[in-house]
Design a protein that fits this description.
This protein has one domain: Beta Barrel (Porin). 13% of the residues lie in helices and 43% in strands. It has helices at 2-14, 38-48, 67-73, 112-116, 135-140, 204-208, 308-311, 392-400; strands at 76-93, 97-111, 121-132, 155-166, 171-178, 218-226, 231-239, 262-270, 283-302, 315-330, 333-334, 342-351, 361-370, 380-389, 408-421, 424-434, 443-455.
Length: 456
């Protein structure tokens, strides 16, 4: 069986009818008469192929005296980033304190069409190094963690996958060591913010159930299929074993323990290729479900249906858990003569079963403006409001033993990313956390600080 499966994968990734790697945002659907004019051909060529000319000023260490561009022409591209968060709790919370954390990531991609003649195939590998401390745990006591780069403070292996385009670039397959959060419940706009409330994905999903996000990957397979130029479907299967994220393995646990659960994800997205309205303003609308088949414990009931906090008996077991999500962002104003400068509102909501999910309801709304300050066209300004409701079953369990129950936590954030150069930025940040920990026992907290980033 394994040999047959391996043979099928080999045939898929060696198949010739595919096209070169492309950016899904620019998928090209042919006209009804199958004829493209010269300008369209040129636009598609630029969209579907990685740029061969690398700008020297896009990287802190330049283009390595031309070697970087030379390697890119042969199909090998490198990137590395370094990000620092320096944040302090200046009021409220458990105590006043400041904490530092950092993350350095490296990434290597092999375009196997250029490198080895395998048409439309990519091989990707990446890793990271993190260090620092968690300000939320040390000084605030909130669940909407204030720093997006905290977690797994160590050298750690991340991605290892093959990617293949098929069916005239309408189908994209990715298989290997991958993470659900790079495809599902995700938006590039979330990366505007320093708080981890929605950076990458809404924090509710990985808190509620095992959902792999950076820097944890697991064995999986993901497909993206374009129904037409405006709609696509994402589907994926993942190993649902939570044990792969443990720090003792440094991201190198390559075992496949399927008995611990299989995770499934499905998303339908509407991304109008021609934009919305007469101005063709870009927007993204999508919704989906993530299901993990691993065993989950009830948040209230013991094996007899009573409060486990009172009886001390084992909690009731459930096979499988899920979260449903919906996301929308839509540019509503674009500055004249620009492609991407302007105002974009966004919102995301997640829901899940109340008896198994710490946050059965989560809601975020925000605004992102690129180029708000005159003559600062690449700077980005963001504002968000996040509301996370704790499970009623947690509340009942806590009340059954006389504890003050957790109800909700909220967070406001205002941030402004200043692009000093194309490879360096400074981002002042302000966060205000209402009811840290959800009980009201901890005073509202004001967090000030900044994020600093480099691209090597």
């Amino acid at each position: 069986m394994r040999k047959t499966f391996a043979l099928i994968l080999a045939l898929i990734f060696a198949a010739a009818p595919a096209y070169p790697s492309y950016n899904p945002s620019y998928i090209a659907i042919e006209k009804e008469d199958d004829i493209l004019d010269a300008a369209e051909e040129e636009a598609i060529e630029l969209a579907v192929k990685r740029p061969l000319r690398l700008e020297r000023n896009s990287y802190m260490i330049g283009d390595w005296n031309g070697k970087r561009e030379e390697l890119a022409k042969k199909g090998v591209t490198f990137s590395s980033t370094f990000t620092v968060d320096e944040l302090g709790n200046v009021s409220g919370g458990m105590k006043q304190a400041a904490r530092f954390d950092s993350s350095m990531g490296w990434d290597v991609n092999f375009d196997l069409e250029k490198f080895a003649g395998l048409i439309g195939t990519q091989f990707h590998i990446s890793g990271l190094w993190r260090q620092g401390q968690n300000l939320s745990k040390a000084a605030i006591g909130n669940d909407l963690v204030v720093s997006t780069i905290y977690g797994h403070e160590q050298f750690r292996f991340y991605f290892l996958y093959l990617e293949k385009d098929l069916l005239d670039r309408r189908l994209n397959i990715r298989i290997g060591r991958i993470a659900a959060g790079d495809d599902f419940v995700a938006s590039p706009l979330y990366g505007t913010f320093v708080s981890n409330a929605v950076d990458g994905v809404p924090i509710s999903v990985p808190i509620n159930l095992f959902f792999t996000v950076y820097p944890t990957a697991t064995w999986g397979a993901r497909t993206r299929f374009y129904l037409n130029k405006d709609f696509y479907i994402l589907s994926a299967l993942y190993n649902g074993d939570k044990g792969v994220e443990r720090d003792s393995m440094y991201g190198l646990d390559f075992s496949l323990r399927l008995k611990q659960g299989i995770a499934f994800a499905q998303e339908l997205a509407y991304v109008p290729a021609d934009g919305v309205g007469p101005a063709g303003l870009p927007g993204h609308y999508k919704g989906g479900i993530y299901y993990n088949g691993a065993v989950k414990r009830d948040l209230y009931s013991d094996i007899n249906g009573n409060s486990y906090a009172v009886t001390g008996l084992d909690r009731k077991k459930h096979i499988g858990d899920y979260n449903i999500y919906i996301h929308a962002d839509q540019m509503i104003y674009r500055e004249k003569g620009t492609k991407d400068q302007g105002l974009t509102p966004l919102a995301v909501a997640t829901i899940g079963p109340d008896n198994m999910n710490k946050f059965p309801f989560f809601l975020m709304g925000g605004l992102v403006y690129k180029g708000l300050v005159p003559k600062r066209d690449d700077d980005v300004t963001g504002f968000e409001i996040v509301y996370a409701k704790y499970s009623d079953k947690i509340k009942e369990s806590q009340q059954s033993v006389g504890s003050n129950p957790q109800k909700y936590e909220m967070m406001f954030e205002f941030t402004h990313k200043i692009m000093i150069t194309k490879w360096m930025y400074m981002q002042p940040d302000l966060q205000y956390i209402i009811q840290p920990g959800g009980t009201g026992d901890i005073d509202d907290a004001l967090v000030l600080g900044f994020q600093f980033g480099l691209t090597f």
